[in-house]
Amino acid sequence: MKATRRVLHQLSACTAAVGLLLAAGCSGAGSLGASDNEVTIALVSNSQMTDAQKLAPEFEKENPGIRLKFISLSENQARAKITMSTAMGGSQFDVAMISNFETPQWAKDGWLLPLSDYAKNTPGYDEADFIPSLRESLSYKGNMYSVPFYGESSFLMYRKDMFEQAGIKVDQNPSYQPTWQEVADWAKTIKAKQVSDAGICLRGKPGWGEVLAPLDTVINTFGGRWFDEKWNAQLDSPEVKKAVNFYVDTIKQSGELGASSTGFQECANLFGQGQTAMWYDATSAVSVLEDPKTYPDLVGKIGYLPAPIVEKPNSGWLYTWALGIPKGAKNPDGAWKFISWMTSKDYMKLVGEKLGWARVPPGSRTSTYTDLPEYEAISKSYGPLTLQSITNASPNKPTVQPVPYTGVQFVGIPEFQDLGTRVSQQISAAIAGQISVDEALKQSQQYAEVVGKSYQEK
C-alpha cells in the first residue's frame, strides 16, 4: 500500500502533461525510439540544453552508428512527462533530464539505471571531478544514478552602472553577504530614482521549480520551514508569514510588472534588456548574461553577490540539471555514450571553442574552474563565487531549526511535486493580488498538513 501511494504521488504531475506534443501521451506505453541505433533524449528547453542540440552533430560524427532524437520541453512540462514515463517503466526516453530532487528518490524506487560502473569504464570520464556536493546529491548508496550537465546555486546579480546612477555603494569585501533588507532598500531606491523599470526581478510564476525556488531560500533564511521534526506543517508559522510577506511586498513595491507570470527566462530577458537593476536567481544565468553575442552591452556591467541572508548564512540553493537513464530505456548503451559526451571535460572545451567561453555549462566539474584558462579569464567576476556558493550550499541542513527532510529550495520527498505545485499557485495568486498572503498560506498549510500526516502515520 505504501509503495502504491508513493508511486501515485510521483505520478501526480502527469495531469500537467496532457495535450503535449508527444504522441505517446501519459500512458508510458509508446516508444519514440524507432530503431536500435536511435537515442531519444528528453531535455528542458534552457539555453545550455539548446547549445547541446546545436553541437549534437559533433557527437554523431564521432559515433556514426547512433542517431539522436531530441524532445525539448519547458521545465514544468518536462517534469510531468518524464516523471510519468519513468514511473510507468515506459521506453519513450533513453536519456531523461532530471535533477537532484528526483534522482535519489527514483534510484531508491528502482526507476533508474546506476551509472557509476558506466563512468568507471569510460576512459577519461573522471566521475571524481564532479563538484562533491553535486555528486553526493545525485547518488544513492554510493552509486551515481544521474550525472550533472550543469550545477547551480543562487546569487544576487546587479547592474553596477545602475547602482552608480542611483548612488548605491556596495561593500566590496569578499566576505560580504547582503541582507534581504538591504536588497529591498536598494530596489526601492532604484525604483524611486527611476533608474530602471524595476528595482529587482523575482520569480512569481507558478511551479515548484519556479516561484518556490527563490522563495524557499527566503523562507529558510528568515527562520521558516515546511515541516517541524515531527512532520507538523509549518506554513502558517510567524517565520514563514514574515518571509512570504516580505517577498510579495518587495515584488509589489519594487519588482517587475506581471510578476505572477514571470519565471527564470522572463527575468533573464528583463535583466538582459536593462529593465531591472537586480535579479536574484540561479548562478547558471551567467551562461546567457555574460555571453557577448547575446548581450554585448552587458559585458563588464554585472556585479555578483552571495545569496542574501537574514538569520541563516549560506542561504543559496543547490540544484543541478542532470542526465539519467530510465530503467525502461531501449538503448541504454547508446544513451550512456551520449550522456558521457554531453557531461565530459571535452564537451566543456568544445562549447568554449565553438560557441564562446561564457557559454560553458557552469558548476558541474571542478576542472572547469582549474583547467580551462580561457574560462577562468572570462569568469573572474562570477566563477569563484559560483563554485563557493555550490560548495557551501547545505541541503542536509537547509533551515535554522531542525527538519526531517533535505533540500534547500525544495522538500526532498516525492509528494513535493504535487504539494509544491499547489502551494506555488497560492503564492502566485497572492503576488497577482487575487488573494492575501494570509489566505494563500492558510490554504497552503492545509495542503501541507495532509502530506505531513501521511509521514506521521508511517
UniProtKB/TrEMBL annotation:
Transmembrane segments: none annotated. It holds the Pfam family SBP_bac_1. Residues 1-29 form the signal peptide. InterPro entries: Bact_solute-bd_prot1, SBP. The keyword Membrane does not apply. PANTHER family: ARABINOSE-BINDING PROTEIN-RELATED, DIACETYLCHITOBIOSE BINDING PROTEIN DASA. This is Sugar ABC transporter substrate-binding protein. It comes from Mycolicibacterium hodleri.
